[in-house]
């Protein structure tokens, strides 16, 4: 049995140790945000955050995740209360087919933790491993910048 800290909650999984994390998330835990794309760790549709860093879950065995902090797109917010990044992606209409969006959101989340006021080059570098064939790249960049402004205003309000 493997213990995951998934979206802030401890979860026990019974999948075989060599099972890719993506399959555990989708099949055992019924979290379908991360998608199967290439199965080779090349497209980014399966991206999740592990200890705050983007990871291709399709090539990551669940055995390596024991006790690790895993965040999926479901951990960013809900339909009723989307998180700042999700809200910005909605407002900027950054998703077209939506297949890559979970990975884009999680890579953007990791970026905003490291770089609260990212420039275009920062965003492009952070999102570079994610493949998107729909051509919404400019809207995605605008969405990340919008989320950064929202988070900055929220931080200022707390001070």
UniProtKB/TrEMBL annotation:
<keyword id="KW-0001">2Fe-2S</keyword>
<dbReference type="InterPro" id="IPR002888">
    <property type="entry name" value="2Fe-2S-bd"/>
</dbReference>
<dbReference type="Pfam" id="PF00111">
    <property type="entry name" value="Fer2"/>
</dbReference>
<protein>
    <submittedName>
        <fullName>Nicotinate dehydrogenase subunit A</fullName>
        <ecNumber>1.17.2.1</ecNumber>
    </submittedName>
</protein>
<dbReference type="GO" id="GO:0016491">
    <property type="term" value="F:oxidoreductase activity"/>
</dbReference>
<dbReference type="InterPro" id="IPR036010">
    <property type="entry name" value="2Fe-2S_ferredoxin-like_sf"/>
</dbReference>
<dbReference type="Pfam" id="PF01799">
    <property type="entry name" value="Fer2_2"/>
</dbReference>
<keyword id="KW-0560">Oxidoreductase</keyword>
<dbReference type="InterPro" id="IPR036884">
    <property type="entry name" value="2Fe-2S-bd_dom_sf"/>
</dbReference>
<dbReference type="InterPro" id="IPR001041">
    <property type="entry name" value="2Fe-2S_ferredoxin-type"/>
</dbReference>
<keyword id="KW-0479">Metal-binding</keyword>
<dbReference type="InterPro" id="IPR012675">
    <property type="entry name" value="Beta-grasp_dom_sf"/>
</dbReference>
<dbReference type="InterPro" id="IPR006058">
    <property type="entry name" value="2Fe2S_fd_BS"/>
</dbReference>
<keyword id="KW-0411">Iron-sulfur</keyword>
<feature type="domain" description="2Fe-2S ferredoxin-type">
    <location>
        <begin position="1"/>
        <end position="76"/>
    </location>
</feature>
<dbReference type="InterPro" id="IPR051452">
    <property type="entry name" value="Diverse_Oxidoreductases"/>
</dbReference>
<keyword id="KW-0408">Iron</keyword>
């Amino acid at each position: 049995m493997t213990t995951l800290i998934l979206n802030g909650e401890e979860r026990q999984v019974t999948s075989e140790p060599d099972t890719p994390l993506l399959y555990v998330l989708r099949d055992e835990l019924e979290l379908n945000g991360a998608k199967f794309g290439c199965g080779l760790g090349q497209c980014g549709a399966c991206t999740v955050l592990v200890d705050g860093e983007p990871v291709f879950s399709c090539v990551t065995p669940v055995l390596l995740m024991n006790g690790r902090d895993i965040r999926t797109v479901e951990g960013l917010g809900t339909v009723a209360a989307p998180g700042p990044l999700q809200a910005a992606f909605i407002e900027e209409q950054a998703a077209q087919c939506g297949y890559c969006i979970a990975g884009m959101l999680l890579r953007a989340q990791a970026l905003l933790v490291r770089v609260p006021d990212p420039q275009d080059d920062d965003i492009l570098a952070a999102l570079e491993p994610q493949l998107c064939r729909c051509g919404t790249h400019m809207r995605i960049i605008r969405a990340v910048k919008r989320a950064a402004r929202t988070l900055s205003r929220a931080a200022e309000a707390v001070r």
